[in-house]
Every structure is written in C-alpha cells, then in structure tokens.
Specification:
alpha/beta, four-stranded parallel β-sheet, 30% helix, three-stranded mixed β-sheet, single chain
Length: 202
Amino acid sequence: MKPEVFLVEFQEFVASCPVETLDDHGRYVFLSDLHMGDGGPRDDLSRNRELLEAALGAWYLKKGFILVLNGDIEDLIKFDLPSIQAAWPRVFELFDAFHQAGRLRKITGNHDLDLVDIKDYAYPLKLGLTLDRNGKRIFVCHGHQASRFYVDYDFISEFFPSAAFTGLPVLWAYLPSQGIPIGHSSNPNPSTTACAGPWKRP
C-alpha cells in the first residue's frame, strides 16, 4: 500500500468514528491490552486481578470517571468469550456498572475484533473515538489501524497463536507477559501509574 493511499484511508477511518464533547467536569480513565483470558496459566492478566478490580471498583467507578476500554480487553485470539466471562465475573460486573451509568466506551482492538460479530454482546462497540474540546481534538483508537504492516497482514496475529497450539514450535503465545505488581500498597501514591495488563504484545 502506498503511503499516500494509506494516509487517505486512515483519515477516512478517523472521520467515520464518533465524536464526543469534553466538558469541564468530565474525567476519563483509559485501559488497553488487558488480554483477559480463562484465569489459567496462559491468562496474562490473572496476576493483576486484585489490582484491576480494586482500581475500577474502589476508585474510578466511585469517583465518576468515564471508562474507555481501548482494545484487546478480551483476548479472543487465545480464548473463547464464555471462558473469559466465567473467569472474570467481578470485572464484567464493574463494566456493567459503568455501562449502566452511561460511562463506558468500548473500542475494539486486533485481539477482540471478533466481538463485532456477536449479536448479543453486552456493550456498544466502537472502532475509534474522537474527544473534542472547543475544536481541539484527541483521537483514540487501539492503534493497530495505524500499522501499514498490520493492515496488509492482519491474519498473522491469528496464525501464530493458532500454530503454537497445534504443535508447531512457535513460542510467542506461550510466553507470559509481565504486569507491574503494585496493587498491595497500603499508602498508594495518586501520581503512580499502574500497568494492570500485559505490556508486551504485538
């Protein structure tokens, strides 16, 4: 794909996404790449379960934040949706609470894009979101759309995990990612940023 063609197509993609107006009182929290799995050893997020549930429930939900889930929340490349939902009931309860309060925005990524084909999925899905404040805009998307390589060869992210699970010597899908275990601090510093999910992913 020629760069100028890609640029035009990406601009069209941005223009097709909904626009939300920011006001003086709106507060947003963004989560991305949780890669929620079945709770087993291949579930990269399991070690940070308590951190995620506490941050969402005890702080962001109670404080009135709008929750933006910016892609790859459920890892549908490695797991099926029912097994993910069964392993993470409290997290989905919290998602439900944000949604019922009108404070959930859910953007798809390359690992959970198949959610758009599930007719009874619980939350409205977006491919991207523009936040506007007095004509100044911030565009939010998962990011894989900005990769010319991914746009041309998106099937690769599905092939490698599948190949690994059928016995081929592809180790990527088996290697655990490392979160940052800071969830047990008795004196949390409000300026600290926690990585609740995997941080090494294509």
